[in-house]
Write a structure and sequence with these properties.
Blueprint (H helix, E strand, L loop, with lengths): L14 H9 L7 H14 L13 H12 L4 H9 L2 H5 L3 H7 L2 H10 L10 H18 L2 H15 L6 H21 L3 H15 L1 H13 L1 H20 L6 E6 L2 H11 L10 E7 L2 H14 L1 E2 L5 E2 L12 E6 L5 E8 H9 L19 H12 L3 H12 L4 E4 L5 E4 L5 H8 L1 H5 L1 E6 L2 E3 L11 E5 L16 H31 L6 H6 L2 H8 L5 H10 L4 H5 L3 H9 L4 H23 L5 E3 L7 E3 L11 E6 L3 E6 L13 E2 L1 E3 L7 E10 L4 H10 L4 E10 L3 E10 L2 H12 L4 E6 L1
């Protein structure tokens, strides 16, 4: 049977036991320092008990034992012993630094929960603690490895807490810590955590699987032994010396297959996995040839993670074949080094054990988490982004230069664009996959070569949030939209504040000169005066309430012969009128003026997609405000004309409107480029383009472009029609 890391819960591990285990792989370690840490932790936790009734010290000792099995460095092991002394025993970090070293103190502080701050909800507290840990792990990756060992032991003893707490902790582990273990490539930890999570989230399923697997144990073990010997013999025929191991897949892996295929356990055939370990990469591929010539491979079940490693550096050849007795078996082929990396991930690399990890070899995805932490204020949004992007994808795509990028399943060209660079994403207008234009909603597949088309005039839209799948892309789009909104609201806030100041015979410049803006910042508890103006512009803070708190205005009103109430009444009336205008100005779709109706939701009909210059009508849609159609739109119910309302285009509104056109051409090389140049040459932005070949050597191109009005659309169409190769151009 396969030798997996044994992460059992041990109740009595002496310091001598720990020393012997470390000595087995790290003979030059400072064992006196390890003994000191053991004694220090024992004394600090003296008298403390766990929910199980055991002495608390058993927990940190088990954490350190797990770290030893992962062959971690001494600082990590010592940090494992001391990881709770700051939070639970009142020990100051400086004391740990003085007694041991700064690296140990840094890891311990990174693992210490934020306990002095009161949070409104448990979820908010968890998010803030995870944010703190992200910052710490960006400095030293060992923080998260120790945290995983900590979570591992907590999960093993989870039966001692309430059922509600069991489910909550297990779900958090599945959402956050399992993907983290996967990202770090520590598959042994990942597999056990998944099984433990299944045990507490779906106990009925877990024990049912355990029973099913146990029933066939003797038959399975016999089959594994005979198959291992059979594989070894076949490899020896070709002078390939190897180590062959076999095991049943872990419970969670089986459960996922059952869910994905919507079948029961008895219908899952490929529940056995075999691993072949050879000396070098050349032998890996030779071994694959022998396996495929000896057993029938199942089409579509071969993956080469050696040529294209996963983002966590995992490398192996995967194939599924029909083995002895017509059983489906999965076979993984790798070198000894690959096997070590697969089981222990980053912990297999000595660079993480010699203190080099501290700040110098930051992994890309950790930097992304750090970016989320800085960019996203909302805790729930932050956790959503983290949960979404920690999950390793499974789609491998290529850049035009041949570089490989791994994305999650369901990823779109927009996700790829933002993965390349934020500006590439923000300026994306279309994409080519394998040389053909595809829509931005296209789901990328492994092996696709993707090229992103950009435009200087392009900017993200809210619609993009429904297209992208990655947390990174969503965050970057929201950041851009928020920045635009803030700038607009600030502009409106200044306008509103300045005009309101006139009521009291002052102005913004005077208020700032007197330093009264600082008083207002404190009074309204905002970051700075710009934030206050933004709040006014967005309508969250009433300008009247701000003006009445200005010290000089208060004094002027008090000393004035004219009644302050009259001034306030004047301000109140002015504030209401101006706020109404601001609200109207700030609405997202105010290209249309609706006769006799204020503050009504207005949307453009997608069936006819009207643009300025088109004759239009408003149609009151139940629950959706007023929908704007062209007057000749066939989708409007002529039998309910009572629901129509007079509308007109807002001449003062400056916005480019999306419109779709279809171009039929002769199918000639370079025609797409010619059409694109005709469009962009007029300063028109192309939002997307879709091309396909038609019978009789014709080509069809569908462009979504942005135009100011109907006249600009006609000019663009005429310009395209001027090309010799163009047969027709029609608005869709």
């Amino acid at each position: 049977m396969y030798q997996v890391l044994d992460f059992s819960h041990e109740r009595a591990i002496s310091v001598d036991d720990l020393v012997r285990r470390v000595e087995a792989y790290y003979p030059d370690a400072d064992f006196e320092m390890l003994k000191k840490a053991y004694s220090y932790a024992t004394k600090a936790h003296e008298g403390q008990k766990r929910s199980s009734g055991e002495d608390y010290i058993i927990h940190p000792i088990n954490v350190s034992a797990t770290l030893i099995k992962l062959r971690m460095d001494l600082d990590s092991i010592i940090a494992g012993l001391l990881h709770d002394v700051v939070e639970d025993c009142g020990v100051e970090p400086i004391e740990i630094q003085n007694e041991f070293n700064p690296a140990v103190a840094q890891i311990v502080v990174g693992l210490t929960k934020i306990s002095k701050i009161k949070f409104k909800t448990k979820e908010e507290s968890q998010a803030e603690n995870f944010r703190k840990m992200v910052v710490a792990m960006a400095k030293d990756i060992r923080v998260i490895i120790v945290k995983l060992a900590d979570r591992m032991h907590n999960m093993r003893t989870l039966q001692y807490v309430s059922e509600q707490k069991q489910h909550k902790i297990a779900q958090e582990t599945l959402d956050i810590y399992v993907p983290l273990a996967s990202r770090l490539g520590i598959n042994s930890v990942k597999a056990e955590l998944e099984d433990l999570c299944l045990r507490f989230i779906k106990p009925d399923m877990y024990y049912k699987l355990a029973e099913k697997v146990a029933m066939k144990r003797s038959d399975r073990e016999t089959y594994i032994r005979s198959t291992v010997e059979s594989i070894k013999e076949k490899l020896l025929e070709y002078s390939l010396k190897s180590e062959v191991k076999g095991r049943p897949k872990h419970f969670y892996s089986i459960y996922k297959k059952m869910v994905a295929r919507a079948v029961g356990y008895d219908q899952i055939q490929d529940v056995l996995a075999f691993r072949i370990i050879v000396n070098n990469i050349t032998e890996c591929y030779k071994c694959l040839g022998v396996i495929h010539s000896s057993y029938t491979p199942i089409p579509g079940r071969f993956k080469d993670y050696i040529a294209i490693p996963k983002v966590n550096n995992y490398q192996s050849l995967h194939t599924t074949v029909i083995g002895p007795k017509a059983e489906r078996i999965e076979i993984q082929i790798r070198t000894h080094e690959m096997d070590e990396v697969a089981e222990t991930g980053v912990a297999a690399h000595w660079k993480y054990k010699e203190g080099i990890a501290a700040g110098t070899n930051r992994l890309d995805w950790i930097q992304e988490l750090l970016d989320y932490n800085q960019a996203v204020e909302n805790n729930s949004e932050f956790m959503y982004a983290v949960k979404n992007d920690l999950d390793i994808g499974g789609v491998f795509v290529f850049t035009p230069q041949g570089d490989v990028r791994e994305l999650r399943y369901g990823a779109t060209p927009l996700d790829f664009a933002y993965a390349v660079h934020t500006e590439v994403g923000n300026k994306c207008v279309g994409s080519k996959v394998n040389g053909k234009m595809v829509p931005l909603r296209y789901h990328l597949k492994s092996g696709d070569t993707i090229e992103i088309l950009t435009s200087k005039t392009q900017r993200p839209s809210k619609d993009w949030l429904n297209i992208v799948k990655s947390g990174r892309a969503r965050t970057k789009i929201k950041q851009f939209l928020l920045k635009v909104d803030r700038e607009q609201n600030k502009e409106l806030g200044i306008d509103l504040f300045e005009k309101a100041c006139k009521v009291f015979g002052t102005n913004l410049k005077t208020i700032k000169k007197m330093g009264e803006d600082d008083d207002l910042v404190k009074q309204f508890n905002v970051a700075n005066f710009d934030d206050l103006l933004i709040q006014i512009g967005s309508g969250k803070i009433d300008v009247k309430s701000v003006l009445t708190e200005v010290p000089s205005i208060k004094k002027k009103a008090k000393d004035s012969i004219e009644s302050p109430d009259k001034k306030l009444e004047e301000l109140n009336s002015f504030s209401k009128n101006l706020s109404r205008r601001v609200l109207k100005k700030s609405q997202g779709d105010n290209a249309v003026i609706v006769d006799g109706l204020d503050d009504l939701l207005v949307r453009m009909a997608k069936c006819c997609n009207p643009i300025p210059g088109d004759p239009i009508m408003g149609y009151i849609t139940r629950g959706r405000g007023v929908t704007i159609h062209t007057k000749d739109c066939s989708r409007v119910d002529k039998g309910e004309m009572s629901r129509t309302v007079n509308v007109e285009w807002n001449a003062g509104f400056n916005f480019r409107h999306p419109v779709t056109i279809r171009v039929i051409t002769l199918d000639k090389p370079g025609i797409l480029s010619l059409i694109s140049n005709r469009i962009t040459g007029q300063g028109i932005n192309i939002r997307s383009a879709l091309a396909k070949s038609l019978p009789d050597r014709k080509g069809s191109f569908v462009f979504e472009i942005e135009v100011k009005d109907y006249s600009e659309l006609i000019k663009t169409i005429n310009n395209i029609e001027g090309l010799e190769e163009v047969i027709s151009v029609n608005r869709v």
